[in-house]
Specification:
single chain, 120 residues, alpha+beta, 4-stranded antiparallel β-sheet, 4 strands, 30% strand
């Protein structure tokens, strides 16, 4: 019984999360935890991301990495969808904030990135 309990606990923890479908573009709803707002600007467009997921053990660092990656990927996908290229996005220009709701166990972040069209 002592050997079975750790396996059962591990199986229960593993069952709490499911990975997003990364085979689909973010615009196709591959990640149900991500909500985007895209607005045109004078030099390109902006991506405003709201991302939230349940975390049994809070991992804000992991969420920050995911949030930055999702926002950047969404900007490149939007440019491709429009048939244009954008200047490389410097990760230092992303604005990111995180928070946690201890009652629901959800950790969330918000990211904002400006995509600028390539010239010529």
């Amino acid at each position: 019984m002592k050997k079975v309990m750790p396996m059962v606990c591990l199986a229960l923890l593993a069952a709490c999360t499911t990975p997003a479908d990364v085979s689909q573009p973010l615009t196709a709803g591959g990640d149900k935890n991500a909500k985007f707002d895209i607005k045109d600007s004078a030099t390109g467009f902006t991506v405003d991301l709201r991302y939230s997921r349940y975390q049994f053990v809070p991992e804000a660092d992991a969420l920050l990495v995911a949030c930055r990656s999702i926002a950047t990927t969404r900007a490149y996908e939007e440019a491709k969808r429009r048939g244009k290229e954008i200047q490389p996005i410097n990760e230092q220009t992303l604005r990111v904030s995180t928070g946690r709701n201890i009652l629901s166990g959800r950790t969330s972040c918000r990211a904002f990135v400006e995509a600028v069209w390539k010239e010529g």
